[in-house]
Automatic annotation (TrEMBL):
Required cofactor names: Mg(2+)
Pfam families the record matches: Carb_kinase
GO molecular function terms listed in the Swiss-Prot or TrEMBL record: ATP binding; ATP-dependent NAD(P)H-hydrate dehydratase activity
Protein EC: 4.2.1.93
Taxonomic lineage from the root: Eukaryota, Metazoa, Chordata, Craniata, Vertebrata
Name of the featured protein: ATP-dependent (S)-NAD(P)H-hydrate dehydratase
């Protein structure tokens, strides 16, 4: 069962999660509000004095012959949230397709090259965060991706792992375990594949307290010591690609949150948690507003159209 109370206590052995989870809603909603108020503090002010790239250069690892929509949605969402540049690292045959969707993305056809890791590594010094998994597929790119994640960790770059990237995590948890700038975003279905763990808090603890954003009717965000519900209302409509909007925006927000944390602008809360909460709230509100206009025919593109006004309403007032 889900939709219960926001939780705010330590992880404990199996069973406890379910028990706590069934408690009636408590006043812990204050935690959610608090974290959402911190999102406002991480948003970099728009000023004329910056040079291009300062608000974030985001890398998306994913995109193969069968899946070109997912990396596009993640990359364009990152731009719409406010990143300066979105890079997509995909296979050769996906690259032309993704470019044809948008001239605004930088697309690197490297994922199926024998030097994929080196090709991506070259760009890492210029990237502020990485989103791994949208449209990645489950071919041998996965093994290369693990190496890219290792290199990114060494550079201390925030990493969001979603979709097929989570498959990698189930096979090789150590790839992201304990990395405090890591966020994984399973949905309930992917979650059951991670079912050696009980509950989202335990999953987080088992993963070395990384931030877990569990997508569902209500999203749950855990970081090993805390679980918070994002209760921003969505709609009954789920469309393919919605998760990519979430992961792309989480990529940008993670960069902003860690930058703000280093500058002392937010304290006392895990920056990854702030990023995850912001992305969750934004995605759900985009879903709601798109649904109000398009109802059953709502698609992810409709949601992406809402990012600008929704972001402004949620985080810039
Ligand atoms: C995770 O957090 C819990 C609670 O704060 C702590 O007891 C535990 O040692 C942490 N684990 C790791 C790997 O940091």
């Amino acid at each position: 069962p889900h939709g219960g109370a926001p939780l705010a206590s330590r992880g404990q052995p199996a069973g406890v999660f379910e028990r706590r989870y069934s408690l009636a809603p408590t006043s812990d909603g204050g935690m959610e509000e608090h974290i959402l108020s911190l999102v406002k503090k991480i948003v970099p002010p728009l000023s004329g004095h910056k040079h291009k790239g300062q608000d974030g250069r985001i890398g998306i690892i994913g995109g193969c012959q069968d899946y070109t929509g997912a990396p596009y949605f993640a990359a364009i969402s990152a731009l719409k949230v406010g990143a300066d540049l979105s890079h997509v690292f995909c296979t050769k045959d996906a690259a032309a397709v993704i470019k044809s969707y948008s001239p605004e993305l930088i697309v690197h056809p490297v994922l199926d090259s024998p030097n994929a890791v080196e090709e991506i590594e070259k760009w890492l010094p210029r990237l502020h965060s990485l989103v791994v998994g949208p449209g990645l597929g489950r071919e041998d790119f996965l093994l290369k991706t693990a190496k890219v994640i290792e290199k990114s960790k060494a550079r201390d770059i925030p990493i969001v792992i979603d979709a097929d990237g989570l498959w990698l995590v189930t096979k090789q948890p150590s790839v992201i375990q304990g990395y405090q700038k890591g966020i994984i975003t399973p949905n309930f279905m992917e979650f059951t594949r991670l079912d050696t763990f009980h509950g989202v808090l335990q999953l987080s603890e088992t993963m070395g307290n990384i931030t877990v954003l569990l997508k569902g009717e209500k999203d749950l965000i855990a970081d090993g010591s805390t679980v918070v519900t994002c209760s921003t209302e969505g709609s009954g409509r789920r469309c393919g690609g919605q998760g990519d909007l979430l992961s792309g925006s989480a990529g940008v927000l993670a960069h902003w949150a860690h930058t703000a944390s280093q500058a002392g602008l937010i304290t006392g809360v895990n920056p990854s948690m702030v990023a995850a909460m912001g992305a969750s709230s934004l995605t759900r509100q985009c879903n709601k507003q798109a649904f109000q206009q398009h109802g059953r025919s709502t698609t992810t593109s409709d949601m992406i159209h809402e990012i600008g006004p929704v972001f402004k309403n949620l985080f810039e007032r």
